[in-house]
Specification:
The protein is mainly α and 139 residues long. 71% of the residues lie in helices and 0% in strands. Helix 2 packs across helix 3 and helix 4 runs parallel beside helix 6.
Length: 139
């Protein structure tokens, strides 16, 4: 069972997938996932924070994806879209998480849950957004 922040990201991915399919609000997703056995041992505060940040920010995150993607957002696999939402949120709003960690975690989630080569697409989009969301210091 995944633990810590990695485990939190795995559950956030599942919550965001469900959000895309059923439209559940952040509070409903948190309540639903917090009683699962997978929730034990994860960084619960990080899970709650990401779900609360990402669910209402979906349209804005889709705009970021559209700026870097080679296809319309509505043609993305829901898993890839959710992984990108997590990665973009961490890059943009959580400078305490190193960019390499953000990208590596996103690639791992895409490999585990996404389509066969989805991780390559996730890597390309996030790598392309790093300079925009985290400009070099002094630049």
């Amino acid at each position: 069972m995944a633990r810590g922040r990695h485990g939190a990201r795995r559950l956030v991915l599942q919550a965001l997938y469900q959000h895309q399919l059923a439209g559940h609000a952040a509070a409903e997703l948190i309540a639903q996932f917090s009683v699962t056995k997978e929730f034990r041992g994860i960084d619960a505060a990080y899970f709650n924070m990401l779900v609360e940040e990402i669910v209402p920010a979906g349209p804005g995150l889709d705009e970021l994806i559209a700026a870097a993607a080679d296809r319309p957002v509505n043609q993305l696999d829901p898993v890839e879209r959710a992984v990108l939402w997590i990665g973009l949120t961490e890059l943009r709003d959580h400078p305490d998480v190193p960019e390499r960690v953000v990208i590596d975690e996103a690639i791992e989630l895409a490999k585990e849950f996404g389509a066969q080569d989805g991780f390559r697409y996730v890597n390309a989009v996030l790598d392309g957004m790093v300079r925009r969301l985290r400009p070099p210091a002094g630049g």
